[in-house]
Amino acid sequence: MDSGEYWNPVLETLPREKMQRFQLEKFKKILNWAYENSPFYRNLYKEAGLEPGDIKTLDDIGNVPKTEKSMLREAQGVDPYPYGTILSVPLEQVTEYRQTSGTTGQPVYHPETWQDWEWSAESWAYALYAYGYRNTDRVFLPFGYSVNIAFWAGHYAAEKIGCEVVPGGVLDTEARILKMKELKATAFMATPTYILGMAETARKKLGINPAKDLYIRKITAAGEPGACVPATKKRMEEAWGAKVYDQVGATEIGHWGFECQAQAGLHVLEAFHLVEIEDIETGAAITEPGKKGSMVVTTFDRFAHPCIRFDSKDIIEWNPTEKCECGRTFRRLKGGVVGRADDITKVKGVLLAPTAIEEVVRDIPELGDEYEVVVIKKGDIDDITLKVEIAPDFKPNVKAVEPKLIQQLRLKTGLRYNLEFHDYGTLPRYAVKAKRFKDLRHKE
Ligand SMILES: [Zn+2]
To answer: Domain 345-443 sits in which CATH superfamily?
Structure first.
């Protein structure tokens, strides 16, 4: 891969009208590709009576049917296995397997061709360059590399810029901190929860003050919203004596937004993605600042598994549009991703749907129907307690149930819980709308 500069003055400072023309052409290209090569998309558009040639202006894009996660999931699992009818290249061209880290049932499988993968790393490289990553940086990755996409692209992007990359996956937290110290690493990438957790471990277990004793000057925060929450960002920056930059993305979409060094809102990576905002109730397009809505996103130039008008359910809002002091004209969002349109929430960097917990609890006959989940911050780490009841027909034999519950929760939600077993009938009952999921993390 090339090493070098990821500042494209032509694309990144295009006047709005030119950027819109650029995006329209890119949109038409991927739409046409999907129509020609993916049975899923061809059926979707035929049913809506839409031909790619119908799209002539940016306003026409609003007529293209949206997609959402459940549709991607339904289209997979058949030939070409396992990607199914969305796959838009011959299976032989797929070089990488990824999957989403979501927790409601099946993950979404994500194929990449080598060309798509280069594109993913490239989009990250623009973001890292905007944070100030250069070939003089030594970048530490305190993250276990797996089937999930997280930080793989960050690794390759840092290499593209010419940084020296240290993969710290299999080490535990203390060993990672010591390695960062030993090597005088200058940057790292992690979830906000882990960024704070590492700082706490350094202080409490190793007597290391990251802000004074380590050499980290910039941190890429991804995977959960912390870096767009001002209080959390401040805490991270103070703990590490470093700048923390918010980066947003998802497996199906790619990395679509980043903060520049001005830290004045989240730039949409408009050369790689079209981001639309829709009113959550009416579906009307929101094109001006002042109103929050749900993100609908299209990814350009990623061809194996096209992402076209994907309803991401992220809640976002346009920033007032004065030019950013960094010089980029990519539109900015106010405060990044500020929430989710549905009730799925992130705990310890993992997407958690309360329904996944419900599924586990109600699948174990020894447990009652009621349960309660309480998420708090213990120090800087998310801490989850699950309260359950032993069903009246079973003796309160906690020892028999506990291992099954732990195993199923781990399998279905990927998380560990503090478990509390209560007598039957003692947890709150709800008549209409249950409040079984109590997220108490953001109370200050
Ligand atoms: Zn900027």
So the answer is: ANL, C-terminal domain (3.30.300.30)
